[in-house]
Amino acid sequence: MTVGTTTIPFGRPMIGDEEREAVAEVLAGTVLSHGPRGHQFEQAFAEFTGAEHAIATASCAAALHLAYLGLGLEPGDEVIVPAQTHVATAHVVVACGATPVFVDCDATGNIDLDAAEAAVTTRTRAISPVHYLGRPVDMERVLTLARKHDLFVVEDCALALGATFDEVHVGLHGDVGCFSFYPVKHITTGEGGMAISRRPDVAERISKQRAFGIDKTVVAERRNSSAYDVELFGLNYRMGELAAALGVEQLKKAPEFIARRKSNYEAICFGLADFPLLELADTGSYARGMSTHYCITAVLVERLAPRRADLIDLLKERGLGVSIHYPRPVPLTSYYRDQRGFRPGQFPVAERISNDSISIPVGPHLADGDAERIVSIVRDAVTELDDGE
Length: 389
Fold this sequence. Notes:
The structure is a single chain. By secondary structure, the protein is α/β, with parallel strands linked by helices. 39% of the residues lie in helices and 14% in strands. The strands form 3 sheets. It has a 7-stranded mixed sheet, sandwiched between helices. It has a 3-stranded antiparallel sheet with strand order 7-6-11, with no helix packed on it. Strand 2, helix 4 and strand 3 (99-103) form a beta-alpha-beta unit. The longest helix has 32 residues, at 241-272. It starts with 16 loop residues before the first helix and ends with a helix.
């Protein structure tokens, strides 16, 4: 994986001395859970996004599960989800005993809202728009659909920290928005997530249900047996102090990280714009939405698509790490295919992106000159692949 002496991974956590010192400070104390760092991270995240309520969780999947629990999703209910997403978007619906109803995406990878409208039934309780790779969904249309059919809206913002629609941060248009802090996301806490909401009733339920549904959060509040009660069904979905300490410091750097992603994204898109063997998704103008770029989705022309694995090997040999988002549409994974009988051809746009694309890195880990190197590596490798046809 070398180009000269340079290796460019798809992603890398950007951890500095500030994060190390913050974690060491927590380890020097005695509070590893239910402590001040968690509250500090929640407050900072609320300020960053403009949320009234922010609840830190163990993961984005935990935040999504808690969102549905907090909204009262029940067995027999249906939730409309895009086929083109991480499996967690659907799994959390199943975890509530409800049914994910999959719909195709559009050419950008975001949910096809016409298909979503057509999928509504009398059992539909919610819709979960996923801001695919940081590009905001048209939330005006989502909310119009939700109001028309009396649906909850749970926004999956796992890859969209910093993105806005109509100058409002994603996650704040619907009932709940959920974020991921996995190692190569916009910021990281190692593992972790966050739920944000404008609704105090839902935020309170999420906060309690992430800690077993107990009405008191720390030992100091449990002075006698009468001061301890379990009010709700809950789970252990809390974020610890070590992760929160990372999050506090990472969030301070988020504007810089996001700006570097934008610069890298624009440079690489510019360098590949006239390249006929790749089609770049999410490069059109979008006046009402501001993307926060996780990566670039590059779709191979049809004749080269069957050789995507060869291309990935060529890129790796030349020092460039790429990824795929996502290797197959969720309903075509074995679990959902076998349970529900989905078959290839039912989600053609999602299948085209999953089967025929690569994800090109734009993260803040890229060094000066890496964007230009990436353009050169990609163009040369794809051209070599085409010449070998």
